Amino acid sequence: MRAVIAVLPGDGIGPEVVDQARRVLSAASEKWGHTFTLNDAAIGGIAIDQTGSALPPETLEIARAADAVLLGAVGGPKWDDPRAKVRPEQGLLAIRKALGLYANLRPVAVNPKVMHASPLRPELLAGVDMIVVRELTGGIYFGDKLRDGNRASDLCVYTVAEVERIVRTAARIARGRRKKLTSVDKANVLETSRLWREVAVRVMAEEFPDVALSHMLVDACAMHLIRRPADFDVIVTENMFGDILTDEASMLAGSMGMLPSASLGEGKRGLYEPIHGSAPDIAGKGIANPYATILSVALLFRYSLGLEAEARAIEAAVAAAIDKGILTGDLAPAGTAPASTASAGDAVLEALRRG
Asked: What is the pTM of this model?
C-alpha cells in the first residue's frame, strides 16, 4: 500500500512522542512492504510563533491532501494567556472542523501489568474494555460566545442531523463488539440533551434494533466509570461531556499516556492523536510516554488505511513492551527506574519485528 500521512508534531512532548510513531511507521513499511510518505507541518503554539495562526493555510492544505493525519499535542505556558486572541487549541478545533471530523473514538483498555498505576483497586479494573465515542464538532465548544461587562455566555447547540450521525457511528462500533450502547446526556436539565435522547431512541429503534441502548446522565456516568467500569462497552456522548469523561477514563488505564484516539468523518481520512496534552514540564527530557501515540498509529492503520492485521500487530507490540516491564515514569512502580521515551519505542520495535 502507498499512503500519504500528514505529520503535525505540535508543541511540548508532541515532537518526542511523534518521533517514536515515525519509527513504527518505518518498521511497518519494511515488515509489510508499504510505502508511506510523511509530510510535516506546524500546528498549535509553534505555528503561532511561525505564522501568527494556530492552523496555517499550508498546514490545512497538507492535511487535506493526506490519507491520514498524525498529531502530537498542542499548547504550553508560552501561549497560555486566556485573553489571547490566538491560542494553540484553536488549531486543534479548527482542523477537526475543516476536515469534517465529527466522531472522536477513544478506546480504553487496562493492561494487567499497569493496574498498579491506576488509583482504582485491581478487582474493579478486571475486564475493562470500552470505546467512548465523542461528538467532536458541535456543542458548547463551537457555539456563539459572548463577553459583555459582567456577563459571559457560551451557546450549546445541536441539530438532529449531528446527533443522528454520531449515534450511528457509535452503534456500528457497538454492533461489532458486545452490542451494548450507553448514551450519556443531561436530559433532566438541558434541552440539547432532551433532543439528543429523543434522536438516539429513534435511530436505534429504526436502524439498530439488535444493539441494546441504555441512557445515563453524565454525573451518574462519571460515578459508574469509577464504581463499575467493566460494565461499559460503547459510550456515545456530546462534545464537552466526552472530553471530561475520557480524561477520567484514562485513569482506569493508569495514565493518559496509554490512550490513543481517532477523529473520523464520512470518508476514510482521519486524525490520530494521543489524548494527553503537551506536558511542557517534561518536554525535552526524553521521558514522555510514547505508547498512546504509537497506539494512535494502530488506529490510523485500522480506520484510514484498512490494515487490520498491521493494527493488531502494533497493539500487540505495545502490549509486549509493557509485559516486558518497559514503563515510563507515569507507569513505573515506585522504587523502579523508569524507561525513557526512546527505550519504550525500542521495545515496541523489537516486539513488532519479532512478531
From this structure: 0.93
